[in-house]
Amino acid sequence: MISPNDIEHITQPYILNGFNQTLEHKEIIGTLSVKCMFNGRATYCIEGAHLTVDDSCFMILNHAQPYDMIIDALTAVESFCVFLPQSWLSDVYRNITLTDSQLLSNPYDNTQPFLFFEMPHDHDNIISPFLFTLRQHHKTQQLTSSQLVQYMYQLIPKLIKLQQDVTDSIADSFLSVRVATRIELYRRLHLTREYILSNLHRDLTLDQLAQVACMSPYHFLRRFTELFQITPHQFIMQQRLNRAEILLTTTKRSVTDICIAVGFSSLGSFSTLFQREYGVSPRAYRTMILQS
C-alpha cells in the first residue's frame, strides 16, 4: 500500500491485478486511477456515497481522493486497476487546451488542474476495449514498461474526453451557473444519488440527503430535480419498486420481507405503489412472471 506521503512522487504508471474473495481497506489515499472488476464487484465509499464497480462498468478516482474499499463475495473477484501519475494528466490536459506557442514558452508546467467525476461509467466502445486489451497484455506478460508508457499516454486523452462529454451533457441543466459551480453541483448531486442507491433500505429524509450533498434542503431539492428530472422522493420510490421487482422474480423471499428489504415501512403502501406501477399486486406479479 502506498502511503499518502509517497503519492506525490509517483512518476511512472503501474498496474495492480489481484483476486480476492474478501478484502477491506480503510482511508486509502492513492494517485489517479481507473478501477475495473471482473467476476464480481467492489464497493468504494467516497464522501459518504457507496459506489459499486462490477463487470458492467469502470470508475476513475482522482489523485489524493480518500476512499474505503470493500470486496465481500462468494467467489474470488478480479480487480484490475491502472494507476497514473497526476503530472501526466496535467501534461496531457495542457497539450489539449493550450496552443503550441503557449506550450513552447512554458513546456514544463504540469500544474494545470483537472478533476474527474467519481462515478461508475458503463463499459463503452472507446475506453473499455482499451482497458480489456491492457488487461490481456498484462496477464500474458506481453507488456514492457515502455509499452505501458505508450498505452497510458493513449488512455489519458480518452479519459479527459469522457469527462468533458459528461460536463457538456449537464450544461443544459444549470444554464445560469458558471462552469466551475456547475461541475461541483453535478459532483455533489451524483454522489448523493449513489448514496440513495446504496441506502434504499434506510429511512431517507430530505434533510439527511441535503447534508450528504452539503447543501440546504431546498437548494438540494431544486437542483436534484433539475438535473435528474425527478424529485428525490420520486427517485427513491422508483428505485425501491425496481429493486422489489427484481427480488420478486429472482428470489423466494416473502412479499413482506421484500417490502422491508427495499425500505418500505408499510406493506399496504408498498402494495399500493407497486400495483399502481405494474398494474398488479406484488404477489400476483410474481405468479404472473413465474407462469410465463
In short:
This protein has 292 residues and is of the alpha+beta class. The protein has three domains: 7-168, Jelly Rolls (Sandwich), CATH 2.60.120; 176-229; 235-291, Orthogonal Bundle (Arc Repressor Mutant, subunit A). The protein contains eleven helices and seven strands.
Tell me the count of domains: 3
CATH class of the largest domain: Mainly Beta
Number of strands: 7
The CATH superfamily name of the largest domain is Jelly Rolls
If classified by CATH, what would the architecture of the largest domain be? Sandwich
Task: Report the radius of gyration as a whole number of Å.
Answer: 22 Å
Task: Give me the strand/helix succession.
Answer: EEEEEEHHEHHHHHHHHH
Q: How would you sum up the global shape?
A: globular
Which regions are unreliable across 5 or more consecutive residues at pLDDT < 50? none
Helical content (DSSP H or I, runs of 4+):
40-55%
* Ends apart, CA distance between termini: 51 Å
Mean pLDDT: 88
For the largest beta-sheet, the strand count, sense and barrel status come to:
7 strands, antiparallel
In terms of structural class, how would the helical and strand content be classed? alpha+beta
Description:
- α1 (about 85-95) packs across α4 and α6 (about 205-215) crosses α7 (about 215-230).
- The longest helix has 25 residues, at about 145-170.
- The model has no long low-confidence stretch (mean pLDDT about 90).
- The chain is an alpha+beta fold.
- The chain has 3 domains: about 5-170, Jelly Rolls; about 175-230; about 235-290, Homeodomain-like (Arc Repressor Mutant, subunit A, Orthogonal Bundle).
- The protein has helices at about 85-95, 100-105, 125-140, 145-170, 180-200, 205-215, 215-230, 230-250, 255-260, 265-280, 280-290, and strands at about 15-30, 35-40, 40-45, 50-55, 55-60, 65-85, 120.
- Strands 1, 2, 3, 4, 5, 6 and 7 form a 7-stranded antiparallel sheet that branches.
- The relative contact order is 0.09.
- A hairpin with a 2-residue loop joins β3 (about 40-45) and β4.
- Helices cover about 50% and strands about 20% of the residues.
